[in-house]
Amino acid sequence: MDAQWDDLRIFLAVARAESLSGAGRVLRIDPATVGRRIARLETDLGAPLFAKSPTGYALSDAGQRLMGHAVRVEQAIEGVAEEMAGSAGGMTGQIRIGAPDGAANFVLPQVCARIGEANPDLEVQIVALPRVFNLTRREADMVVAVSPPTAGRLSVQRITDYRLHLAASRRYLRDHAPITSLDDLKGHRMVGYIQDMIFDKELDYMREAALERVSLASNSVSVQVNWVRQGGGIGVLHDFSLPFVRGVVKLLPEAFSLTRSFYLVRHADDRRLERLNRFAAALADGVRSEVARLEALT
């Protein structure tokens, strides 16, 4: 194989963005140039690397095989850069974190802001998506997840537990029938997830409350929190979100309480990169402390 690192860099960008235009934005080069470079690489290797369609670029079998090699080259180059820069100073470069939007909205901003203050040359990106991230394609450098993955070459660290309770606004409670037991919930509007968009069984809170009908549904935790805050209904909310929403209180905490966990997930090969190791340690410590601080306020 005669491909240079610049060819592999462009290949990785297309594989991760699944389009020439997306790769061009990341690389800051014209999409037509990206396309020519991919075509040249495919000619050099004698195999198509992508299956092209109107919906985007998907890796072919040959592309899947090249992906692993290209990622290892990328990691080796990053490792050399780290070693040359030394690890005694502050962290630098860009780190992208994938997270469910509950963590992304209510926990990670404070944590990452503090890490950024201590490392002014570090660029942190938080990608909040209600789905599972693909670390193999490097959609993120690391992921905060609500359940540990069971497949792939991944490193998994349990960060901390967090709690959820039924909650409603004081205005809603004032204007509707009293709630003294879980049975009373059946006469109230419930706020929760869109059932067929729940991407992890750990998020199926309503099933545990034996409630099947959700009147106001969204795949976004932030939308659910705002519905509850505005008096739209009763939801199952993270305790760590409650300090951000005035006028919202827990309901029946003795009768209904859920405990879940956050996990930090990384690609196994990334543990050789000291910069990511340092950031992962700071992130885990920060999330653990911030969840404890916010829950103590409720």
Automatic annotation (TrEMBL):
Signal peptide: none annotated. One of its GO terms (molecular function) is DNA-binding transcription factor activity. Keywords: DNA-binding, Transcription, Transcription regulation. Gene3D superfamilies: 3.40.190.290, Winged helix-like DNA-binding domain superfamily/Winged helix DNA-binding domain. Residues 1-60 form the HTH lysR-type domain. Transmembrane segments: none annotated. This is HTH-type transcriptional regulator GltR. It comes from Roseovarius halotolerans.
